[in-house]
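To whoever is covering the structure queue this week,

Two jobs came back overnight. Logging them here so there's a record in the thread.

Job A:
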Amino acid sequence: MKILSINPGSTSTKVALYEDEKQVFVYTVEHERDELRKFEKVYDQLSMRTELVKSMLEENNIDISALDAIVARGGLLPPVKSGAYAVSPEMLDQLEHRPNNHHASNLGAGIAYNLAKGYDHIKTLIYDPVTVDEMLPVSRITGFADVNRVARAHNLNMRSCALKLAKEQNKDYKDMTYVVAHMGGGITLTLHDHGRISDMISDDDGPFSPERAGMIPGFYLVDKIFNEGHTKKSIMEALQRKGGFLSHFNTSDIRTVVENAKGGDEKAQLVIEAMCLAISKCIAQLAVSAYGKVDNIILTGGIAYSEYITDIIKKRISFIAPVVIYPGENEMDSLAQGALRVLKGEEIMREFVPVF
């Protein structure tokens, strides 16, 4: 089975070709920032990005007509269930005119759709977007009647890790309960309870990370907004791009901070320990949602490459369940594996229903 995976980022579009599960080609199409500034909205970049990907495929002698599927990173759709969704005109209309937010990932489905035009045999799909929302009603309630918790997480990599572990254990994913922590520029966690992502912790109500502030005491946050004269844009930028390690050390390079900690820097040691404690508390929180009946805890994402950090977390959480580490984000592989399951008939492609 020949599968093309597409992952649009803010300044690049990553493309990879697979034969079944084996990656045989990967290429990143870079987009100049000056070129991108010409577009008023992110979605206006669709034709430009599509043509650049087409040119790259032609230059590398990749025949689109030989593909069985094109799978793209899912954009910021309204809440959906986990798994595969067929790319449709209704989905593209939603992503262009009524997305939950504007982000480069919204372009993935459109690029896949444009590449597959004229080839009816090619399945076009997205898989496990960040807006997968299968939370139980009890997990949504907050202290404000008009505010519910919203599911936003690194679902593509986390669910792929959970499926991978179940397969390695010769188990059915739907029979298992896993807590998965994705640790990268942002940190999110999910509870996979018998095939359903029944609870989660997003990067705004969980641990701080290299760039994210994470959960901030509410009263202090209100004071900060009003005392410092913040706008919505400036406080969101502070929470998402100027918090965490960047606030403490003026760098978001976690490798530098870890090396400093290993070298005896007490502040670096303390802040890393604090982040690991926050991650561990969130893992325990999700374990409580499953009444403590957790089969495994999975640590993934780029930060999981650091044994210094994973060892600290393991010491705190191993009493809950055995810990498995799958470092990296693995988004391209995860997309291809999802498409392959669809092609093999192991999963169905859902039909997206637009929200107006």
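Job B:
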Amino acid sequence: MKSREDIIEYATSPHIELVGNHECVVDGLKGILEYTKDRVKVDLGKINAIISGCELSIDSFSKEGAVVCGTIISLEFEGNG
């Protein structure tokens, strides 16, 4: 059985969902660090996510998250510190 702390950490952790290779839904982001047609880098708190591809765009953005569309080639993570 999961502890209360594990459940809270899971519920407040960033969530990334790839839909094929054309859409990436990112929930729980802190901000956009880089935004070009070939690369979108988002701050997820302890880590950054880097979405690389072609003709990338942010189709929706709010304090809860963002939707990145285009041809996605890769998704990478790096430490943020």
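Note for Job B: The CA atoms of residues 44 and 58 lie 16 Å apart.

Please reply-all if you pick these up so we don't duplicate work.
Q.
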